[in-house]
Write a structure and sequence with these properties.
The protein contains eight helices and ten strands. It is an alpha/beta fold. It has a domain of about 170 residues: P-loop containing nucleotide triphosphate hydrolases (Rossmann fold, 3-Layer(aba) Sandwich), CATH 3.40.50. A hairpin with a 2-residue loop joins strand 4 and strand 5. It starts with a strand and ends with a helix. It binds adenosine-5'-diphosphate (ADP) and magnesium ion.
Length: about 240
């Protein structure tokens, strides 16, 4: 079963007396453990689709199913639970808490969870968080605050944070947009390595060809519709050939 499934999804936003059609009849499925890129120019609907997958928004019509559950049919409480249990987020602008150090930033989503006592959850998460910080190469920076880190290091913290609750899916909306191209490449390669090691499904958006060509599955958008949806290596090979030409 696909971990993410969109069936004929439409999303319109009211805009004064008219409407903006952000997503127009989009359907696709994403398989568990894939490394997926949603590609398209600015305004093509990437963020809208990631917000729908992230249960931050529901479609105007059509269905979005995450891990077999239709997001539009859930109560607010169920939505929050599904999001917390299943999804980790990485943002373009990192969104770290400036007063917390690296360890505390990575730990933060664990504090928001339910069940057991807070003290117990923190203790149980400690080894996992240390391991995540190590795997993004920041062990020496555990006690440093975000303003002491470079942009690439901050995004590494955000990757570790997204994984703190051991989500099945990590969503990243243009995670490389605020980084120079070689740092952006490193960040995507780090995400790819973690995808490989943990089998976490990653879904990231970008308009950068160098970045999306690493994906196993590329969904290309234009004006809120799917222009191409390719999961095999075929598209990747063609793109690679086009870049090398
Ligand atoms: N909250 C909103 N209210 C009104 N229009 C919106 C809103 N969010 C997105 N849009 C519009 O929907 C379209 C798709 O936007 P978006 O999903 O942000 O695209 P992308 O992330 O690819 O740049 C754009 O025309 C944008 O202006
Ligand atoms: Mg966007």
């Amino acid at each position: 079963m696909a971990i993410v499934s969109l069936q004929n999804v439409w999303k319109t936003y009211p805009m004064g007396k008219t409407e903006v059609h952000a997503v127009n009849g989009v359907s696709f499925e994403i398989e568990k453990g894939d490394f997926v890129s949603i590609v398209g120019p600015s305004g093509s609907g990437k963020s809208t689709i990631l917000n729908l997958i992230g249960c931050i928004d529901v479609p105007t019509s059509g269905t979005v199913c995450i891990d077999g559950r239709e997001t539009g049919a859930l109560s607010e409480r169920e939505t929050t639970q599904l999001r917390h249990a299943t999804i980790g987020f990485i943002f373009q602008s990192f969104n770290l808490l400036p007063v917390l150090n690296v360890y505390e930033n990575v730990e933060f989503p664990v504090l928001l969870g339910k069940g057991d006592g807070l003290r117990k959850r923190r203790a149980e998460a400690r080894d996992h968080i240390d391991h995540l910080i190590e795997s993004v190469g920041l062990s020496q920076w555990r006690r440093h605050r975000p303003n002491e880190l470079s942009g690439g290091q901050r995004q590494r913290v955000a990757i570790a944070r997204a994984l703190a609750t051991q989500p099945q899916i990590v969503l990243a909306d243009e995670p490389t947009a605020n980084l120079d191209s070689s740092t952006g490449q490193e960040i995507i390669e780090l995400m790819k390595r973690i995808n490989h090691e943990l089998h976490t499904t990653f879904i990231f958006s970008t308009h950068d060809r160098e970045i999306f060509s690493i994906a196993d599955h590329i969904i290309r958008l234009k004006d809120g519709t799917v222009l191409e949806n390719e999961r095999s290596g075929g598209l990747r090979k063609r793109l690679k050939a086009a870049v090398e030409r």
